[in-house]
Amino acid sequence: MLRYETERKHLVSAVNDLRDWELLNPAGGAVSMRLPDGNILMSATRLAFDRWQVSPRDFIVLAPDGAVIEQTGGLGASGTPVHLDLYRMLPRAGALVHTHAPYTLAFASLGLPVPSVTNRADTFGEIPCLHADDTAVKRKFLADRVPLDLPEGMVQRPEVAAVNLLEYRPQLEKVIAPRADEMERHGLAFTLYRHGAFTVGRHLEETVDLMLRLEESARTALLQAHLTAGTVFPNRLYRPERQSPVGATEATQVSSYLTGRD
Q1: How far is the C-alpha of 21 from the C-alpha of 109, rounded, in Å?
Q2: Which has the higher per-residue pLDDT, 231 or 89?
Q3: DSSP-assigned states of every residue in 162-212
Q4: Distances (CA, A) of 175 to 26, 126, 160, 195
């Protein structure tokens, strides 16, 4: 008999919803939740290759340090350290969703934060993009390996884990961990450069809903740019009749935001 059978079925339902809503795809992703006893239930590796056709057995149960508690499918993905770090840094975190959803990924591919252009995205504040040159980090690691403390319950791909442990862990500590108090009011979201999106919620339903809101805001921002000849208006009314022929102040401000200029 499977341990945590109720929670496993709950996670299967969430994965099915994310897949049906075209947020999870064969490019990758991972879903996890904190169990009542503090252990972590996480989707196993290769589920993306299986097109997210998931059963209750296709999860792994990890201790907070990544040790295997129960393994009925594969191991955790190479992104397991990010999940474990977030649960450690954010005591209120009850679930995590990581996807390569297309519209959010468009912003992440450029290293841009996702702008909040809908009231549904306002509920979780800033959506930063954390940066790491994964190709360079992997190349450097393979040329000069350094010891890494890899969790037992994850795929042993140290060159991939090096990106998470050496580059993203310090950024999570600096950018996300200080926002732990916000979890009393709402979940959090962020993206990884050229990789994908993470949402962190207090329970699984909230976390799934946050991913929907995040992708909705990214999609709407890109549609805004199509309608306004390249301009995105976060929480600002678009009034083309008030713009000068060379563009209004609002457009200049947003252009600076999108290009990272002050």
Answers
A1: 21
A2: 89
A3: HIIIIIIHHHIIIIIGGGGGGGGT--EEEEETTTEEEEEESSHHHHHHHHH
A4: 29, 10, 21, 18
Measured CA angle at 207 (ends 44, 67), to 5 deg: 35
**Span 12-16, mean pLDDT?**
94
Q: What does the block give as tokens for 211? A: 């991913």
Q: How far is CA 262 from CA 7, 190, 253, 256, in A?
A: 47, 21, 9, 6
CA distance linking residue 101 with residue 107, whole number of Å: 11
User: Would you say the C-alpha torsion 51, 1, 93, 42 has a positive or negative sign?
Assistant: negative
Short-list 198, 195, 82, 218, CA closest to 132: 195
Q: Is the pLDDT of residue 253 over 70?
A: no
Q: What pLDDT was estimated at residue 246?
A: 35
- The two beta strands, 196-201 and 95-99, are antiparallel
- Tell me the whole-structure pTM to 2 decimals: 0.87
Burial degree of 22 (CB within 10 A; 0-12, 13-18, 19+) = exposed
